[in-house]
Amino acid sequence: MLGEGVVEYRRLGRSGERIAAIGLGTWRIGGGMAADYSMDREAVEAIRYAVELGMNHIDTAEIYGGGHAEELVGEAVKVFRRDEVFITSKVWHTNLRYDDVIKACERSLRRLGTGYIDLYLIHWPNPAVPISETMKAMEKLHREGKIRYIGVSNFSVKELEEARQALSTTDVVANQVEYSLYERRVERDLIPYCSREGITVIAYSPLGKGRIAREAAEGRSARARILNEIAEKYSKTPVQVALNWVIWREEVVTIPKSIKKDHLRENAGAAGWRLGAEDYRRISEAWA
Ligand SMILES: NC(=O)c1ccc[n+]([C@@H]2O[C@H](COP(=O)([O-])OP(=O)(O)OC[C@H]3O[C@@H](n4cnc5c(N)ncnc54)[C@H](OP(=O)(O)O)[C@@H]3O)[C@@H](O)[C@H]2O)c1
Fold it and tell me: CA 34, CA 27: separation in Å to the nearest integer?
């Protein structure tokens, strides 16, 4: 049932870059808002295992574990060539003034132990800081090669348009937003906009923070029974179907978090195949 990682890549924005359709999230790897060192060995092993399975898009942020998640990512990727991994990190919304963005990025680079971050995102919009000021700093980092691509997270269509207008030498390649069977709001405006404009949607919390596995296992709701039935039809697990549903549109990639090897194998096996249109529609309607 558990597929080994069949690597599937998707184009990043309108760039020539291709990133894993299923990557790895690191929220709560190395702590929540503060560092937790108790699981370091498991965390490093999990990140390495994910990369080996083909989930080489690793998502982290300066805020995760008070910086410790970035340290663990840095430690884990040491054993790979730098271009074998694609690292996304994020600047927190209280660091969006020009000088603060530059300093935050320098700190992230140090913790990650790398000369560049592949994709650097504004974690949340902050209306108190003009987006033009933040983007000036992002473009400086981009010019200097410290970040390869610029993106945003939790931006509405309007905020995304403003962010793009504030850039002069490059464009926003991605918007990271919550998207799962439980959270569908981005389907209304954001996904259609990104699809039209060639912007990648990076779906976060694609497993509803773990809820989907529990609901499917209980099998009490009608929608869970439909998910289970379709999983059986494809010889996949309900979690794999839920993730495949998230990445069904070409412009969407995702980053489920796990520190467990069997879960990582299961998540990697959610790519490399595709739900038929009728089954996709059935799940979409049952979970609306
Ligand atoms: N930009 C933002 O504002 C933002 C916000 C939230 C999250 N994110 C990013 O998105 C990533 C993913 O979102 P998330 O961590 O909130 O939630 P998620 O990926 O939907 O769910 C993670 C939870 O599911 C469990 N899990 C993973 N694979 C499983 C499997 N195959 N079977 C059963 N349980 C499984 C994990 O536990 P185990 O570790 O025990 O497997 C963990 O408890 C984050 O880690 C972070 O990188 C970004």
Answer: 11
- Other C-beta atoms lying within 10 Å of the C-beta of residue 113: 13
223 in Cβ contact with 287 (< 8 Å): yes
Residue 259, token pair as written in the block: 């520190």
pLDDT tens column, 89-133: 999 999 999 999 999 999 999 999 999 999 999 999 999 999 999
Which residue minimizes the CA distance to atom 39 of ligand 1?
Answer: 258
Say yes or no to pLDDT of 30 above 50.
yes
- 57 phi/psi in degrees, rounded to 5: -90, 110
Is the pTM here over 0.90, yes or no? Answer: yes
∠ CA 236-209-257, rounded to 5° = 70
Cβ–Cβ < 8 Å for 135, 167: yes
Q: Which member of 37, 49, 64, 149 is catalytic?
A: 64
Residue 177 contacts residue 202 (beta carbons within 8 Å): yes
- Tens-digit pLDDT profile for residues 150-195: 999 999 999 999 999 999 999 999 999 999 999 999 999 999 999 9
Please work out whether the CB of residue 177 comes within 6 Å of at least one atom of ligand 1: no
Q: Is 64 a catalytic residue?
A: yes
User: Which of the listed CATH numbers 3.40.50.10190, 3.40.190.10, 3.20.20.100, 3.30.930.10 matches domain 9-209+249-259?
Assistant: 3.20.20.100
* Rounded (5°) CA angle 250-256-259: 150
